[in-house]
Every structure is written in C-alpha cells, then in structure tokens.
Amino acid sequence: MKTVDDISITADVYLSAQGKTAPVILLFHQAGGDARGEYAPNIPRLLHEGYNVIATDQRSGGNRFESTNRTVAALEGRQYSYCDAYQDLEAALQYTIDNGFTRKRFVWGSSYTAALVIKLGAEHPKELAGILSFSPASGEAMDDCKPEPFVPKVRLPTLIMRPGSEMTRESSKEQFILFQKHGFQTYVAENGVHGSSMLNPSRVQGDVERHWKVVLDFIRKNL
Q1: Which run of H or E residues covers position 127?
Q2: 100 in a structural domain
Q3: Is residue 3 part of a domain?
Q4: Burial letters 44-68, b for 16+ CB under 10 A, else e
Q5: Which residues partner with 54 through β-bridges?
Q6: Helices 86-98 and 112-123 sit at what angle, rounded to 10 degrees?
Q7: Which of 27, 123, 130, 206 qualifies as a FRET site for 152, CA 20 to 30 Å off?
Q8: Are 161 and 192 spatial neighbours (Cβ–Cβ below 8 Å)?
Q9: Is residue 113 part of a domain?
Q10: At residue 133, does pLDDT exceed 90?
Q11: Regarding beta strands 185-189 and 52-57, do their DSSP bridges make them parallel or antiparallel, or are they unpaired?
Q12: Helices H / strands E in the chain, number of each
C-alpha cells in the first residue's frame, strides 16, 4: 500500500472464514519491531474469533522480535520518526475502505502506535468502531503526536491497557486519570509486560487469559 507521502508500506492481510464481510482489526507494532514478530501469537486467535486482520510494518521499526520489518528494509537506510509513521496508519485504514472491508473496523496500537491510534480515532471517527491502545507512549519523542491533545476529541469506544509495572510512573498515572475523565475504559495487567506483548504468555511468562478476556469483550461489545 502507498502512503500520502509516497512511501510503500508492507502489510499482511489475513481473512477470516467470513471473508471481507467480517469485522477487521488493524494491528500496528511497537518501536523497533515489526507486525509479524510482535503479533504472530495473536493473529490466529483473532482469526478464530471471526475477525479479519491487517498487520502493518510501519516505517519506524526494526528486528526487535527477531523478525524483519519489511517496510524499513525497503527504505534502505532512510529513517523516519514515530510521528511520521502516522501516515502509515492512515494508509492501512484507507486500504480497508478501498478494498471492500464492509464491516466495523478497530485500530490496535502498541507503545508508540498506541498513541498514534488515539490520534487516528480522533481524526477518522466515521471510519472506525473502536480503539485498542496498549501502553500508549508520550514524552519528547512523541512531541508532535502525543496522545493527550487528541483525547478530548475522541468520540469512539476506547480501551487503554498497561502492565502494572508501568503504573508506578507518574506520567502513566496522569494519563490514566485523563483517559478515565473522558470515558475511556482502562485496564491494568498486573502480570503484564509492555505493549501488546502483554497478550503473549511466553513474553509474560504466565497466564494472559484475563487480559484477552478484556480485549475480546471490548470488541464484541462494540460490534
């Protein structure tokens, strides 16, 4: 797929048994990563639940999960910021619109993209049914696209998830207060790890069924 600034973005499209008439979940990976590496354990479960999945390699990423970010590899050394990658999220959303995915769409972000999906939801409310945000980033690296300014503009159902270890930070506590003030659903995974990896039992080194239940209940509620 192509972005508005003419970058070629690689993504994997996984169709459920219902085909394009099923709801679709757009997955975006965390910093230094790629979609296949981060979401390999999650995609089969989402397909089993009856959802289509589009997993995108953004222009800001790498081999953090021992897998290749194909978008970054094709850029041959050109580097982009986290905020630049927002255009990749918009391109993935536009792909679903242009290619016949007719049911509800959910965006799912991890770490820096957990912040970007909040912006996406604020700016594209008519095209989306809900936002899932795992460990949303903020701070200096996100200065031009941090989630806080967009929170009051979001009118979509939104689920924010963080591991308990991150809730010791004042910035995370302040974010949760803001999210709750604006009606977002929040959840602390006491045995979780950063980002969407909190749904991966091998990364958590423990049971993650409670976390999955929160995620799946949120999606079903907003279909």
Answers
A1: none
A2: yes
A3: no
A4: eebbebebbbbbbbbbbbbeebebb
A5: 13, 26
A6: 50
A7: 27
A8: yes
A9: yes
A10: yes
A11: unpaired
A12: 8, 7
